[in-house]
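To whoever is on call:

I kicked off a structure prediction for a single chain this morning and the downstream step that reads the tokens threw a length-mismatch warning. I double-checked the sequence; it's 143 residues and nothing unusual in it as far as I can see. Pasting both halves so you can look.
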Amino acid sequence: MNIDKLKAQIKHSEGVRTTAYKDTLNNWTIGVGHLIRLPDEEYLLEKELTEEEVDQIFTTDLNQAIDDARKFIDADSIPEEAFFVVVDMAFNLGLPKLMRFQNFQQTLRDHDYKKASREMLDSLWAKQLPNRSKRLAKQMREA
């Protein structure tokens, strides 16, 4: 797996911020789309992260997203670009919400990447994140 390419993709999707901000769902976030879990990480609301701290948190979150994506679909059963889309979605949604995409999951198992892209766009997630979902759906279609 080209981890550098995957990291760049996730950073493009999430953006990188060294201070806390509210995401599209009004949740406190920092770094590369890291959801600040209150009250455990309340200290992050007042802190400016260093590049090393951003990378450390990002690495942990990305590893979790990769593990979650592997629970959703066997990484070796689909093209790398398609798996990157699943990781990107897992990073954004988390495994419990990703698991609700059952039709999408089945289209991946069927290797129907055009239909998979349509399933991605037929969701509340796509309505909430239209630019990201359209970009990832295009990536899936071309997988």
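Update from on-call: the warning came from a stale cache, not from the record. Cleared it. Sanity check on the structure: The chain has a mean pLDDT of 96.
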